[in-house]
Amino acid sequence: MLWNTRRWTVLGCVGCLAASAVLAAAVLGTWHAPAARAEDRVSAAKASTDPALERTREEVKMLDDLYKNAVVSITRTYIDRDDKQPAIMVAKQVFSAMRKQGWHSARLVDATGEPFNDENAPVTDFEKAAFKAIREGKPYYEEVVGTGDQRRLLAATVVPSVMQKCSDCHTSKKVGDVLGFLRYDLKVR
Ligand code: HEC
Q: pTM to 2 decimals?
């Protein structure tokens, strides 16, 4: 499975995060997962008996790379611990715009059990199941709901503290710890 090759978590590397070079590698490995090799994509496509679902999973991966790269870049470029508008607030505005345009629904959900903003706590059954899976150490969790042309892919991808700037504000978590997940809801088509 392609998902197994992706590393959205750096939990295994917590002990080696002291060296800045390693930290940079962890950030890149976590938020900028390398593109799947072309032959992997081909074999995954061949193995799939459900091409629409595979396409939707690819869309989630693309969106996840886009949102996570944007949040990391904005944080690195503009944000320090005294800022009242963390990058995640910009992401929330973009999520809202995308939903209004009818593209997809995305939401940042807490996985610490103590969110800064209670609105970010898991609400739906899917978010509660994803909360459990992500806290158990899974980097990805999904469910397919509905039938026929009403099918939807619900997906959750882990959001760790990927750089010191995250932990400067989220002080209860160190770099490498899980902070939350992004929850996606996309039509399968
Ligand atoms: C300037 C301080 C600051 C920085 C830097 C920051 N955050 Fe946050 N973060 C916040 C605030 C404030 C909220 C609550 C936002 C809201 O009102 O929804 C939040 C919310 C979150 C949440 C949702 C759970 C919760 O606590 O409400 C996650 C997950 C999260 N941030 C991850 C990150 C990651 C990953 C980084 C680094 C790329 C990061 N944050 C950097 C301040 C910060």
A: 0.81
Which residue among 169, 171, 182 has the greatest number of ligand 1 atoms within 8 angstroms of its CB, and so is best to mutate?
Answer: 169
CATH code at 44?
3.30.450
Q: Following CA atoms 151, 67, 90, 166 in sequence, which dihedral angle do they give, to the nearest 10 degrees?
A: 120
What whole-number distance in Å separates Cα of residue 152 and Cα of residue 184?
10
Report how far ligand 1's centroid is from the alpha carbon of 78 (Å).
14
Q: Each residue of 156-185: pLDDT tens digit?
A: 999 999 999 999 999 999 999 999 999 999
Q: Left, alpha or beta for 176 (phi > 0: left; psi -120 to 50: alpha)?
A: left
Which amino acid, residue 7?
R
Give the domain extent around 174.
2-187
Q: Give the number of other Cβ atoms within 10 Å of residue 113's Cβ.
A: 9
Distance CA 92, CA 86 (A): 10
What distance, in Å, lies between the first and last C-alpha atoms of the chain? 20
Report the number of distinct structural domains present in the chain: 1
